[in-house]
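hey so u asked for the seq, here:
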Amino acid sequence: MARLRCIFAMILLCQVAAEQDIPLNKYGLPVVSTIALYQQLVKADSNQQMVNIARYIPGIRMDIRYATRNNFTKRVLYRNPLVLLRRPAARALKAVQEDIQSRGYGLKIFDCYRPYRVTEKMWEIVPDDRYAADPKKGSGHNRGVAVDLTIIDLKTGAEIPMPTGYDDFTENAHYSSIPADPKARVNRAFLREIMEKHGFVALETEWWHFYLADYEKYPLMDLTFEQLAISKKL
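ran it, structure tokens below
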């Protein structure tokens, strides 16, 4: 069933791509790689627009790991990063932030939009689709509708306990695992509950990763942060 859903999603995305004249890459995937094409998509559908989360969601915290060496690749993969999501994903995330702020918590973002070329680099290092997106399929991050995040205590600014740290590529990061710390289990369930309440879907192998269920509406993009910043003030 999962395979059939994946095939259907790819067919739908290719249909959308054909309508918008999005060129196919070497794997036969439609990938937006020019600002002109991106602007064309936004003009046709405002939901395709990328939103700067740092400006759009007051008080949200950032720890963009791929702009540092503190990530699983031990390399700096982002230069001059912007924390971006498509408009519907940004609205949903803002609703999450407002919801948990009333309970004394806030969000900390590890990653949002990721250029397709970075996904290719990651796959070279970890060719395991439980933890890294296969370039032959692409990632929700490449579509601008996936987010990696955790929860912080607003009083202390500290991350609340979770089963593992970010980008822990072990079964301890899976939802099927039972954390030794009962608080981590409760917090993981809280994060998933609040994200799903506002329209996100959880990835079973990474407690920190969430994406919009209708991700196939948004084509893969390989635009750099610099290109997107120049295209419109973000």
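The helical segments are 2-20, 35-44, 53-56, 87-101, 116-125, 140-143, 182-197, 225-231. The CA atoms of residues 151 and 191 lie 7 Å apart.
lmk if thats what u needed
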